[in-house]
């Protein structure tokens, strides 16, 4: 007879023999109790045909919850637990009944086991790599810091040479011999360094400061262009050379008055050009045009002390000399110097050091020359205007538009500012206003002419009060005679006891422009002074003589026709009026201490 719960009686095989024992007889009211063998068979072989749907749904829900918990913990696999239960990712063996869902949270806590840390870290790294896989790959700038065998410190060779030496120390000297060491970046230009030095020296930056490359052993010097890199120029200088910080008013003067720098007889064109003096600079700046500077110059022969007068021609391709008179045929032209390979310098003492025939010498120095003067191309002009023309043309043909852009930078900056915010002399003076306190209440004087007349009246009234106090026997330190004798020594334009040659040298160094001047003590008359003025690239001297009127000492330039109580009044007057001078006083020579 078949057991309850079986699908049906098993067909009997003729050669098979049933090994199961017959069930024991039971009473009429007792339930059938299975034997121990039957119980063991039931525990080893669970029923396969009956499917419990509720248990299957609960098992699937428990599996999904465990999978969601595993994903939130960034873990996919769990090792075999200590109680013998398989992990989630391993399927149970065939025929095994799924475990029922846990009944209470306490049972969950009892059955949970710690997860290995190494596996969790590996999964976190994989997850982070998956998140950043869509981003572009960025190379590691410091791979040597990631290795365990290398120390986490930067060595001297770990950085590129360009980054390891980003700055260099540059020594800059002033006219009085003082020196300042500036830590200069490799990309700092000469204009930037001049602005920095002017700011540190508390000077007004009027875009006329320049950095001068000075070679004392060679007797050469030149002003650096504003766009040149200071550190790069320093590499072409010898140890005896140095940088000087001084004024140069003639740096871009040829853009304002080109006719004074390029005489018509010295400028020619290789091809037909319709430009006159008005379009002279445009032709120089245009790379397609072919301007030429021509004329006779004294040329020093290489390796010899003798000088020879030759006909020279300056073009964009270089400096040429004619081997046959003034002929410019290609077969008669010989290349003397290349523009790209060198720079143009002026001779400091050409007569003494190189036996130059005149004082207007200049030189084309190759960049590779440091100490030797044999490879220098020494030239000498007849006058200052010819030398200035040759040197200015050399700069224009070599740099071109870079010079014009450097010239336009301060002009554009000045145009962007309002006329009320542009300082005339200094920032402090720009914040002052003229006031009138003659009435009961003060008022601001808006009219410039009225403000100037009020200032003059105040100055005369102050001098009258000083004279009246002196007549009464006052011992005031502001005695007019003492004040007029020393007040000019506090001004930048007064240079004290210097010689005539020294004053001319200072004027030449700071630019031969119209109106450049200085005042000094007279060597011939101890009570007189001398005004040194530049006009049309020529230096002239005017003596300032003292004169007495009613017991008071005055100073005059025109034999007493125009009198001034001190030199400050004299300078202020001739800055506004030309008078007996060929031009007004415009720029004053100044020396600063770094």
Summary keywords:
extended; SHC Adaptor Protein; alpha+beta; Ubiquitin-like (UB roll); 18 helices; 594 residues; SH2 domain; BPS-dom; PH-domain like; five-stranded mixed beta sheet
Describe this structure in words.
By secondary structure, this protein is an alpha+beta fold. Among the domains are: 167-247, Phosphatidylinositol 3-kinase Catalytic Subunit, Chain A, domain 1 (Ubiquitin-like (UB roll), Roll), CATH 3.10.20; 253-415, Roll (PH-domain like); 487-588, SH2 domain (SHC Adaptor Protein), CATH 3.30.505. It has helices at residues 36-44, 53-72, 105-111, 117-131, 161-164, 190-200, 230-234, 253-256, 258-261, 280-285, 350-354, 384-399, 401-416, 427-430, 448-471, 480-486, 500-509, 567-576; strands at 167-173, 179-185, 209-215, 220-223, 242-247, 267-269, 291-300, 307-315, 318-322, 333-337, 342-347, 361-366, 377-380, 435-436, 443-444, 516-521, 529-535, 538-549, 552-556, 587-588. It starts with 35 loop residues before the first helix and ends in a 6-residue tail after the last strand. The strands form three sheets. Strands 1, 2, 3, 4, 5, 6, 7, 8, 9, 10, 11, 12 and 13 form a 13-stranded mixed beta sheet that branches. Strands 19-18-17-16-20 form a five-stranded mixed beta sheet. Strands 14-15 form a two-stranded antiparallel ribbon. The chain contains 18 helices and 20 strands. Residues 1-49, 74-98, 103-110, 148-159, 420-430 and 465-480 have low confidence and may be disordered. Helix content is 30%, strand content 19%.
């Amino acid at each position: 007879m078949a057991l309850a719960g079986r699908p049906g009686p098993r067909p009997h095989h003729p050669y098979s023999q049933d090994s199961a024992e017959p069930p024991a007889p039971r009473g009429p009211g007792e339930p059938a109790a299975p034997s121990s063998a039957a119980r063991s068979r039931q525990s080893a072989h669970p029923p396969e045909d009956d499917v419990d749907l509720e248990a299957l749904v609960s098992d699937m829900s428990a599996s999904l919850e465990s999978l969601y918990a595993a994903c939130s913990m960034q873990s996919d696999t769990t090792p075999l637990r200590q109680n013998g239960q398989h992990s989630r990712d391993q399927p149970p063996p065939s025929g095994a009944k799924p475990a029922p869902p846990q009944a209470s949270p306490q049972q969950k806590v009892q059955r949970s086991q710690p997860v290995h840390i190494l596996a969790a870290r590996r999964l976190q790294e994989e997850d982070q790599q998956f998140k950043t896989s869509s981003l572009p790959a960025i190379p590691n700038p410091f791979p040597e810091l990631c290795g365990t065998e290398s120390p986490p410190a930067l060595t001297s060779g770990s950085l590129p040479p360009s980054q390891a030496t980003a700055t260099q120390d540059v020594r800059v000297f002033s006219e009085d011999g003082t020196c300042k060491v500036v830590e200069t970046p490799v990309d700092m230009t000469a204009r930037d360094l001049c602005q920095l030095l002017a700011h540190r020296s508390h000077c007004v930056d009027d875009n006329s400061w320049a950095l001068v490359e000075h070679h004392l052993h060679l007797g050469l010097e030149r002003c650096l262009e504003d766009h040149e890199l200071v550190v790069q120029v320093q590499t072409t200088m010898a140890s005896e050379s140095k940088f000087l910080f001084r004024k140069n008013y003639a740096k871009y003067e040829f853009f304002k008055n080109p006719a004074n720098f390029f005489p018509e007889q010295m400028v020619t064109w290789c091809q037909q050009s319709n430009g006159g003096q008005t379009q002279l600079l445009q032709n120089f700046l245009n790379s397609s045009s072919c301007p030429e500077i021509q004329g006779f110059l004294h040329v020093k022969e290489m390796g010899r002390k003798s000088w020879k007068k030759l006909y020279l021609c300056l073009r964009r391709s270089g400096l040429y000399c004619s081997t046959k008179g003034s002929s410019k045929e290609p077969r008669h032209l010989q290349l003397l110097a290349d523009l790209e390979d060198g720079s143009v310098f002026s001779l400091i003492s050409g007569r003494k050091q190189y036996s130059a025939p005149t004082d207007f010498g200049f030189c084309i120095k190759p960049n590779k020359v440091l100490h030797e003067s044999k490879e220098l191309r020494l030239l000498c002009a007849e006058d200052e205007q010819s030398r200035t023309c040759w040197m200015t043309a050399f700069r224009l043909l070599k740099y071109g538009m870079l010079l014009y852009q450097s010239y336009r930078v301060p002009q554009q900056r000045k145009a962007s500012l309002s006329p009320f915010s542009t300082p005339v002399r200094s920032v402090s003076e720009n914040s002052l206003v003229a006031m009138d306190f003659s009435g009961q209440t003060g008022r601001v004087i808006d009219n410039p002419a009225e403000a100037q007349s009020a200032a003059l009246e105040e100055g005369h009234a102050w001098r009258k009060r000083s004279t009246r106090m002196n007549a009464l026997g006052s011992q005031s330190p502001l005695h007019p005679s003492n004040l007029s004798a020393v007040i000019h020594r506090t001004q930048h334009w007064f240079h004290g006891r210097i010689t005539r040659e020294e004053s001319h040298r200072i004027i030449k160094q700071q630019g031969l422009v119209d109106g450049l001047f200085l005042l000094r003590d007279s060597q011939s008359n101890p009570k007189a002074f001398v005004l040194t003025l530049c006009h049309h690239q020529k230096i002239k001297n005017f003596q300032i003589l003292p004169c007495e009127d009613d017991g008071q000492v005055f100073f005059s330039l025109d034999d007493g026709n125009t009198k001034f109580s001190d030199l400050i009044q004299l300078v202020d007057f001739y800055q506004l009026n030309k008078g007996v001078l060929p031009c007004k006083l415009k720029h004053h020579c100044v020396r600063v201490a770094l």
